[in-house]
Design brief:
Blueprint lengths: L7 H12 L3 H14 L4 E7 L5 E6 L9 H4 L11 H4 L11 H7 L2 E7 L6 E7 L2 E2 L3 E3 L4 E7 L6 H4 L5 H18 L4 E6 L2 E6 L9 H7 L7 E8 L2 E8 L11 E5 L2 E3 L2 H11 L11 E7 L4 E2 L10 E2 L2 H17 L14 H13 L11 H8 L12 H5 L4 E6 L3 E6 L2 E6 H19 L4 E11 L2 H9 L1 H6 L3 E4 L4 E8 L4 H16 L10 H13 L9 H12 L14 E5 H7 L5
Helix pairs in contact: 1-5, 2-7, 7-8, 9-10, 14-18, 14-19, 15-17, 17-18
The structure holds adenosine-5'-diphosphate and magnesium ion.
Adenosine-5'-diphosphate (ADP) binds next to α2 and α5.
């Protein structure tokens, strides 16, 4: 075949392939246009999963009658004019390709009216062929109707799934839009039936929208994040590790209000959770990155799902640090943090706060809610509570239950601690801190400990000799199967050292078993903490138990063990009263 220029319709259809994958893509493009036009109410109607109809109606600025044909022309946009604008995009759209692309693969109709026009106007386009502009009736704002998607492109039509599947994609998309813009109301109907109704968050700002998308329990099981550095700000909510999910289905990232699935950002989150999340589990989060538009290129991906940061290393580091900090604060002395199983006590407190959040009417800023939530919830003051009890949220140990749990009493009720899980976390955090400081606390053994190992185990051990030394061991190979230890970590009882070391060698040999922690560098310390922690059936004295409680209170991330399980829970007097149907 000779080289030739493709006809315009074909060019549009090819371009459509990049942005219009399925009905949900239509909803996305039309709703983003509405947001760019300054809409405050957006109504979306779909039929048959959106294949038969997608209609998006907004109350934004509208399109002048004379400009209607232009809106459907290729590479025609009102959002940028030149190269300089491209370097600092503040709108969701800017390429001027969505409407012509959609029009080329459907039957499209636009009705629109700008505020000061005498009446509205409409234009139709059938498979890309434009009709004439005619007067019509419409309040100020725009309605775009897209019927019979892919009617003229049978090859594409085949890739559209069932109505139900397509509808699911549409709902997810609208949920993302709702999280992106708390100040805009969204309504979605399917075949006339209401599916989603998210009024704009007004004066009595609440968490309804967050609950609508992530579930009722999410706000109480999340920490608020708000951290700014120069022109960059990270805010939102990070789910507690104890409420992790089997699927990565509740992970939302917004960069300057645009929903993205950006690898760099997702990786920074994964890294921040690596110390607190069980391998294979997924965090739930809603995070907003706001930065000077000059610092981010949103034109780096055909569907704009990925962005390119001018200084990606710095952004990665910033997000990782901010989140890691927020998560590290999940220790027992923070009243605002809910622990698995304690939701009944914490939920009402958070909900009550939420309904008092000082959101200004029409606030465009979803972060106002975050700021208000960030102040810790004060535990209700009990008359006569001593100040020392206040400093000791985990209370005083009373007994050891079945060799596994510590039963303690604080001023609010009962506290139960999983002693192995808690001790493991305490040790792990201590080991990490010591490694960072370069001075592991280690003890000299009166007699060196000699251990028999298999030759391959010993050589594997010596290969990572540095890690052992950083943790406080001093090793010497006596032969190819005999190892001597002159120093071991201070936390280790000499009598137990040999058993711990043998188990540790075994664990490290079976790397698969030590993957609780995702960061390779911390696997060693994690395995060491797990093996060194008090194991079930070891009798503890009351002072020993109290000492563990105090260490937990002073330890970052102490609310969950290295595997992401909770380390403690509580039962308030109120809950105890309820158990016994005792009114107060
Ligand atoms: P882009 O959004 O990249 O500019 P589109 O093809 O999506 O390209 O839209 C083309 C133009 O049509 C927009 O730049 C805008 O001026 C106008 N437009 C589209 N939808 C709307 C709307 N809902 N309200 C007001 N103007 C709109
Ligand atoms: Mg657009």
């Amino acid at each position: 075949m000779p080289i030739r220029i493709l006809p315009d319709e074909l060019v549009d259809q090819i371009a459509a392939g990049e942005v219009i994958e399925r009905p949900a893509s239509i909803v996305k493009e039309l709703a983003e246009n509405a947001l760019d036009a300054g809409a405050t109410h957006i109504e979306i109607d779909v039929e048959r999963g959106g294949i038969q109809l997608v209609r998006v109606r907004d109350d934004g600025g509208g399109i002048a009658a004379a400009e209607l044909p232009m809106a459907l022309a290729r590479h025609a946009t009102s959002k940028i004019a030149g190269l300089d604008d491209l370097a600092s995009i503040t709108t969701l759209g800017f390429r001027g390709e969505a409407l012509p692309a959609i029009a080329s693969v459907s039957r499209l109709r636009i009705v629109s009216r700008v505020a000061d026009a005498a009446h509205a106007a409409e234009i139709n386009a059938d498979g890309g062929a434009l009709g004439t502009v005619r007067p019509a009736a419409h309040p100020s704002g725009t309605t775009v109707e897209v019927r019979d998607l892919f009617f003229n492109v049978p090859a594409r039509r085949k890739f559209v799934r069932s109505d139900a599947t397509e509808l699911t994609h549409v709902v997810r998309l609208v949920e993302r839009l709702a999280l992106a813009r708390f100040d805009v109301s969204f309504r979605l109907r399917h075949g006339g039936r209401g599916l989603l109704d998210a009024p704009a968050t007004g004066a009595a700002g609440d968490l309804a929208r967050l609950e609508m998308v992530l579930g009722q329990e999410f706000p109480a099981a999340a920490v608020a994040v708000r951290h700014g550095a120069g022109p960059v700000m990270l805010s939102g909510w990070a789910g507690l590790p104890t409420r992790s999910r089997a699927q990565p289905d509740q992970q939302f990232w917004f960069v300057n209000g645009r929903s993205v699935r950006d690898r760099l950002l997702m990786n920074a989150v994964r890294l921040a959770y690596r110390d607190v999340l069980y391998h294979g589990r997924h965090a739930a989060y809603v995070l907003y990155l706001t930065l000077d538009p000059k610092l981010v290129d949103v034109n780096a991906h055909p569907a704009k799902l990925e962005v390119r940061f001018r200084d990606s290393r710095q952004i990665h580091e910033f997000v990782f640090r901010a989140l890691e900090r927020a998560l590290a604060e999940s220790r027992p002395n923070l009243g605002a943090v809910a622990v698995a199983g304690s939701a009944p006590t914490d939920l009402p407190a958070l909900a009550a706060r939420a309904s008092r959040l000082p959101l200004e009417p029409g606030a465009r800023d979803p972060w106002a809610i975050v700021a208000a939530l960030k102040q810790p919830v004060e535990p209700p003051a009990l008359p006569g509570a001593s100040s020392s009890a206040e400093e000791q949220p985990l209370g005083t140990a009373l007994a050891q239950l079945h060799g596994a749990y510590i039963l303690a009493q604080n001023r609010d009720g009962l506290v139960l601690v999983d002693m192995h899980a808690a001790h493991e976390r305490v040790l792990y955090e201590r080991f990490k801190a010591q490694r960072e400081s370069g001075t592991p606390a280690s003890q000299h053994l009166l007699e060196p400990l000699v251990i028999e190992l298999k030759a391959h185990e010993l050589s594997a051990l010596l290969e990572r000799g540095e890690e052992w030394e950083q943790a406080g061991f001093e090793l010497e190979a006596l032969s190819s199967t005999r190892l001597a230890m002159r120093r071991v970590p201070a936390s280790m009882r000499p009598a137990e050292a040999s058993g711990i070391v043998t188990a540790l060698v075994h664990d490290l040999g079976l790397e698969a078993n030590t993957h609780h922690l995702d960061g390779a560098a911390d696997r060693f310390l994690g395995a060491l903490a797990c093996r060194s922690a008090i194991h079930a059936h070891r009798r503890l004295t009351l002072p020993e138990m109290d000492s563990l409680l105090r260490q937990m209170e002073a330890t970052e991330r102490a609310n969950q063990c290295n595997h992401g399980r909770p380390t403690w829970t509580r039962l308030s007097l109120q809950q105890l009263d309820q158990l016994f149907l005792r009114g107060r």
